């Protein structure tokens, strides 16, 4: 059975975004050619390159399982393994950067203070396990959270265990959604895509507010000192 042909066949009720081209087409061909390991490779790459959306790859993998291209258990196993492998690679990058180098780079950035990084580091030391576990279920941040875990040198067995559990939950929800929705699997991407935009929007607002506070702070201090000098 050919996944791309089935997904794009006339009269199948598939939505307009047929998996014959783009990321969906690439993922469909990868799953059809390599089965479960292909799905795992796609998700590993998605972790390394967040622009590759898991909200497309995972439901499509579930759809493939519903079509008999791969087994459902195989889909869940390989996609979770791919998530762990991709996250481990980012963890390794963070660990290679290291705490000292991170502080050196941070000190060169405008509008930030070393004390900010120190507070962030203290927060991660207290809540890092929850951040890794639940961060795996948040679009975009599910990939990025692996880097600070590496920088802070979280114990590797703990990191891998938390990543596996969090990824299994996220992957199961999206794979099963694609499995149950059948040729309407793209609905998952539509709604999770909205969630991704909300998360990104909130992050941009937070960064903008942070920059505004940093810029206005020195100005207010300068005015205050000028007023005292009169």
TrEMBL record:
Keyword presence, RNA-binding: no
Coiled coil: none
Top-level taxon of origin: Bacteria
Stretches assigned to the VTT domain: 52-179
Matching Pfam families: VTT_dom (PF09335)
Keyword Oxidoreductase: no
Subcellular localization: Cell membrane
Transmembrane residue ranges: 69-93, 158-182, 194-213
Principal location class: membrane
Signal peptide segment: none
Protein topology in the membrane: Multi-pass membrane protein
Keywords: Cell membrane, Membrane, Transmembrane, Transmembrane helix
Record-level GO cellular component terms: plasma membrane
Entry similarity comment: Belongs to the DedA family.
Name of the protein: DedA family protein
Species for this entry: Streptomyces tabacisoli
